[in-house]
Amino acid sequence: MSDYTQETANELADLALAEQTASGDEKIVQAIAEVLGASSQTLQEAFLTSVRVRRAEARARELLAASAAKRGA
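^ that's the sequence the OP posted. Answer follows.
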């Protein structure tokens, strides 16, 4: 996969997740994935991976913060 594809997927994932948070539209990520998939399956897959990575990171950070809070840190 090219650097351009990954950079674009990362940028779109950041924008899509920010829009989802701002608008409350839970379907925006899937809508963008569908638009991307119509033209580039490679970019669609990279985008969805980027979204999953960001969501996993957020969950991990929440778990770490909760653990620290329990310790009183």
